Task: structure prediction
Amino acid sequence: MRPFCYAEKNYRRSGFSREHMKRIIKNKGARTGIFFGATSGVITTIGLIVGLHAGTQSLVAVLGGILVVAIADALSDAMGIHLAQEADPDSTHDHIWAATIWTFLTKLVVALTFALPLLWLPLQTAVIVCVSWGLLVITLLSAFLAHIQRVKALTVITEHLGIAIVVVTVSYFIGIWVKTAFA
Result:
């Protein structure tokens, strides 16, 4: 029998046991919402941060953008997932609502995590920390996905990081273009 540690006791007390987490991940609707919400939360938010920073160098603009993404875009993505799941004749009522709710909650929470470095660090440093955090989240999601699918993690991670880097790069140049064209 494994020794029972204090951290595990608190983990169980919080209501999120390993069995509970496994049930959530096995629920197709929840899994759809979590993976979509987390990925969208990262990609949209780091693209927005890099683009707004390149174009404005304004903490207010970047922080405001994050809050808009966290709320309005999370609701929009949840609605999009809801409609997409309703269009699938194999989706059940429970699956549709699980995907909708988990998409909203996951994107909201993930997007809001990017505000923390902006509140504590100088803007330039915070942007670098945010991009690094986003790439780490994408790496972890990709590794977990590869594990679930029983495929090589490096291939999945490389593909997903490549897409994220393209988004960040394009967002940066859009921000520079907007700044030079309209400032």
